[in-house]
Amino acid sequence: MAFYLIQTLNALSFSVLLMLAGLGLAVVLSLMNFVNLTHGSFFLLGSYIAVYWFSSGMPWWLAFPVAFAATGAIGFLLDRYPFSSFYERTHLMQVLLTFGLSVVFADLMRWQFGGDVAAPRIPDVLRGVVFILNIPFPIYRLFMIVFGFLLAGGLWFLVDRTIWGAVVRACVTDRKFLETLGINTKTVFTAVLALSAGLGGVAGALGSGMLAAHPGLDEEVLLLALIVVVVGGLGTFRGTIISALLLGFSFTFGRVWVPEYSNFIALAVMAALLVLAPQGLVVPKLRRV
Amino acid sequence: MGRFSITRRNFIASVGATAVAAPLCTPAIAQGVKPIKIGLVTSLSGAYAGMGESMRAGLQLFLAEQKNSFAGRPIELIVEDDQLKTDEGVRKFRKLIGQDNVDFICGVISSGIALAIRDVVAESKTLTFISTGSANDLARKAASPYIFRPTKTNWMLGSTAGQWAADKVSKSGCLTLAADYAAGREYVGDFVDSYQKLGGKVVKQVWAPLGTTDFAPILTTIAAEQPEFIYSFFASGDAVRFLQQFSDFRLGGKVKLVGTGALFDQEDVLPAVGDAALGGVSTYHQSPTAPASKAFAETYLKARGRLPGEASSSGYATGQVIKTALERVQGDPSNKEKFREAVLSGATDTIYGPMTFDPRNNQAILDIYVNEVRKGADGKPINTVIHTFKQVKDPGPGA
Asked: Same domain for B142 and B30?
């Protein structure tokens, strides 16, 4: 019993990571119809920032806002140039641009941080374990679960329940119409891209305690995030969250029961879902006039 | 105007070309000897980029110490990145052989690449030194007269770990956990063989897919299983994640970790995991505290600010082997048969310890160290030799 409870917590903590990585990507893809393959680079940069911040002696919790601000700022700059001129282009062009940039970023980060694995010094407060019926579970993972769901909840509230969110959603549905209302849609897109990059950075900072930071992590995360977004369906938060949970749980319980086939099982589940629901798990209701 | 008349454009071009080429030629002419060209193929991008950089640094350090000359001949080093991809590795070998006309090629981290280049170097009879790749087949079915192996095979580490575990750790309650690919399967297979031969009992075997990000489910399984010790193989990033999460789940004090050297590699694993690795035991052909590598460990620490692990040591040791063999043939590797005999004749003093080669498969016979991760004088974890298996020899082609 305790065993499965702990495994469920394990699954939740991995799902949170997938969810945060996926949300950043989903925001840009569903709201702006822009395929941003540099998202993994934001994640890795966030991880490196956290690793250095945790060992710098500054208040540890600041690592997350700092990672958010730094990657968000880079997102902002990238939006100025060259992303904005690609928003209207085909997906293939966007893929070419952003994939190329992700390779450049990977090299820049290797040059800056070296090729070695950098593991963070997790702050003392989060380092302990709680014993659940005699099986230890790290506090850091509980923190991840709570922080992750809070962040996702905050984002959902922002996009779904506030006037800013309404503007962004309107911008996706009919950009020209929104312009006639006197709203500069370019600014809206810039904000969304910076937000998404920042989310990638925070996800990386949070994930560093679990995955460490090293070259190649950017691609691993990007791939998982893409699976989450595609299976979840575009345009909904619920879809991304449900698909992150599904992927996280199938990976985890695959590793519990048949570790050597865990990748196969998890990806087979996702492929099956994609066949059964090609539009994604949750399809947004669209009303067209 | 004739075909070979000098036009103004041709003239400028040829003067320019001479001006560019002249400085490149002078050093060799000045010393009166052609340089020996050594190609180094290693992984400078991809998951093992850190190891690749260390391997290059190790070899460069040795070249610098020898003032860039072996047996009176200047050395020209050409470094190529195989990106940890088999086809790219083969392409780089072809380039070094066909375009650069190198005398030797060394390096290669991945066993997959080491297997793939075998026919390429056999065709051109290029003298090749595999510095790290350690699949058993390289010393068995895939051995080649032109490929030397100044490194361990997986069997040499796995079987010695089995002996050590059965004699010194426990004959019961063993769980094996390793990365699920060729190397992991070989290490664990050879470990289990020798462990069971000595009466050891394996409770459970767990395989984690290569590049596993989250070990939590497996670690919880281990916590519930409560084995006495674990024999494990992971490398580089996987090893760091595994050890970090192993200590996150508080298994550190409870379950003893025995592994292959890569799990606790001094350079690319220990600095990242810190105290999480303390108490871990591994078998390795390299140790910063082995008497043979003490001097190297100090110079390397001065040069790069950290102690050497396998990758950097392999670069350095390969340099030592090439140098010794070149001295035995008076700096002339053109007769390949003679060079081969020179490598095989007698021991070379390397930072791994004395190294002799098995004439059946050109595989090095090496001392294998049992390292325990302890706190060093500076408080940082260091692989400390607690036992040495003398002159371990791979069973070779017959096995």
From this structure: yes
Question: Residue B243's pLDDT is what?
Answer: 93
Q: Is A52 on the interface with B (CB under 8 A)?
A: no
- Residue B9: what pLDDT? 57
Does the residue B392 lie in any domain? no
CA atoms of B394 and B399, how far apart (whole Å) = 9
How far CA B70 is from CA of A216, B24, B51, B354, B356, in Å, comes to 37, 20, 25, 20, 20
SS3 B393: coil
Please give the Cα distance from B304 to B57 (Å, whole number). Answer: 9
Whether residues B134 and B261 share a domain: the answer is: no
Residues of A in contact with B312 (CB under 8 A): none
Among partner residues A141, A212, A262, which is closest to B240 by beta-carbon distance?
A212
> Can you tell me the distance from the alpha carbon of A136 to that of A65, in angstroms, rounded to the nearest whole number?
30
CB contact under 8 A, B212 and A260: no
Residues of B in contact with A220 (CB under 8 A): 211, 213
Q: Is position B391 within any domain?
A: no
- Residue that the structure tokens 């009166």 belong to: B32
As for the ipTM of the complex, it is 0.85
Tell me the pTM: 0.86
**Could you give the CA distance from residue B77 to residue A135 in angstroms, rounded to a whole number?**
54
- Are B136 and B7 found together in one domain? yes
A15 in contact with B, Cβ within 8 Å: no
Highest mean pLDDT (candidates A40-49, A87-96, A132-141, A223-232): A40-49
Mean pLDDT confidence for A148-157: 91
The total of structural domains in chain B comes to: 2
Interchain CB distance below 8 Å, B50 and A11: no
Confidence (pLDDT) at A268: 92
| pLDDT score recorded for residue B25 | 47
| Other beta carbons within 10 Å of B65 | 12
B196 and B243 belong to one structural domain:
yes
Q: Which of A114, A115, A135 sits opposite B220 (nearest CB)?
A: A135
Dump pLDDT digits (tens) for A79-95: 998 998 998 899 999 99
Q: In the structure encoding, which two tokens stand for residue A280, read together?
A: 């994604």
Interface test with B, best of A48, A116, A264 (most B CBs within 10 A): A116
Is B163 a domain residue?
yes
User: Are B140 and B196 found together in one domain?
Assistant: no
Average pLDDT of the residues of chain B: 90
pLDDT of residue B2: 44
Of all residues in chain A, the percent with pLDDT exceeding 70 is: 98
A116 and B268 within 8 Å at the Cβ level: the answer is: yes
The arithmetic mean of pLDDT across residues A237-260, rounded, is 91
- Name every chain A residue with its beta carbon within 8 A of the beta carbon of B218: 255-256, 259
The reported pLDDT for the residue numbered A221 is 93
Report the gap between the CA of B394 and the closest CA in chain A (Å). Answer: 29
The answer to whether B366 and B349 have CB atoms below 8 angstroms apart is: no
pLDDT grade for A116, boundaries at 50, 70 and 90: confident
> Which of B45, B50, B249 lies at the smallest CB-CB distance from A116?
B50
Nearest-neighbour CA in chain B from A137: distance (Å): 6
Distance CA B153, CA B135 (A): 6
Q: Closest by alpha carbon to A46, among A83, A78, A15, A72?
A: A72
> What chain B residue is nearest to A109 in terms of C-alpha separation?
B45
Q: Do B217 and A7 touch (CB under 8 A)?
A: yes
Which residue numbers in chain B have pLDDT < 70? 1-32, 399
Q: What is the CATH number of the domain that holds B203?
A: 3.40.50.2300
Domain of residue B274 covers: 155-284
**CB spacing of B245 vs A210 below 8 angstroms:** yes
Residues of B whose CB is below 8 A from A14? 213-214, 216
pLDDT at B33: 80
